[in-house]
Known about the structure:
Blueprint: E1 8-16, H1 20-33, E2 37-42, H2 49-58, E3 62-66, H3 79-91, E4 96-101, E5 106-109, H4 116-120, E6 128-136, H5 149-152, E7 155-156, E8 167-171, E9 176-179, E10 185-187, E11 217-221, H6 226-239, H7 253-267, E12 271-272, H8 280-289
Parallel strand pairs: 1-2, 1-4, 2-3, 6-11
Antiparallel strand pairs: 4-8, 5-11, 6-8, 7-12, 9-10
Helix pairs in contact: 1-2, 1-8, 6-7
Amino acid sequence: MPADRSEAYLAACTIYRDDAAYLAEWIEFHRLMGVERFFLYDNGSTDHHREVLAGYMAEGVATLQEWAAPFFGHNGRPKTIMTAFEHCIGAHRHDARWIAFLDVDEFLFTPDGGSLPEVLSDYEEYPGVVVNRAEFGPSGHVTRPEGLVIESYVQRRPLRPDDESAHKSVVDPSRVTRCLGAHSFMYVDGLPVDEQKRRVDMRRRMKRKPVTWARLRAHHYWSRSEEERRNKAELWSEVGDPAAPATGPSAGRSRGWVLADAEVVDRAHSVLDDSLAGYGPAVREALARRG
């Protein structure tokens, strides 16, 4: 299955800030899923993230790029994410057959227990694959629990037949022209597809219903604990959204958005979903081997 023009069949890219506590779990989980390389962008972290990543970088598993650009552009779009992702496409266009663009609080997997490369090999004629997300809330944790994310957070928003789920993109970097946002890309030829091979055009806000995640799925641990949810809201307030007014009832829109979104997860009669907890022992074993 490896592509003869690539060093890796599947890589993952993310941009983060002060996520040292979660980077190793995120990397080791995705290595279990079949991700071979990680293209990482640091947006001004002040924690010990470099110590966490040192071994992965020494082994050539991960590369790290400093990316301290302003988070928002003049139009309120997440400029830092977009420019980092476009840099990744340009710098690593020939380093992987597929690149998955994720956040550190997102875990990509195949619900049937297979590997991501096995599933993605069925989509090679398309320039990209969009993967629907499942949204998880604090799951009753007031402060950060000692366990892994995939074991600790097991309450998610239910999926309804008429839902339009947010998605993440797995792309063929050789067929991407630009990044449209945190979730979508523009391609040289054709449109990306969902897991059912239905074409999706995000420029026209064209989404496919019903949401399906039988073959590919991303768990989005949006808020983690209540304490971390509020810290995340303060971080969004600090980076500032130029589209939000400085004063008045809409001031601090980014902070309010973070708080409200997490509350929706918990209020919506959340359902138990521990489908990733079974990977916990293997992830802990991998982490223990690294000391």
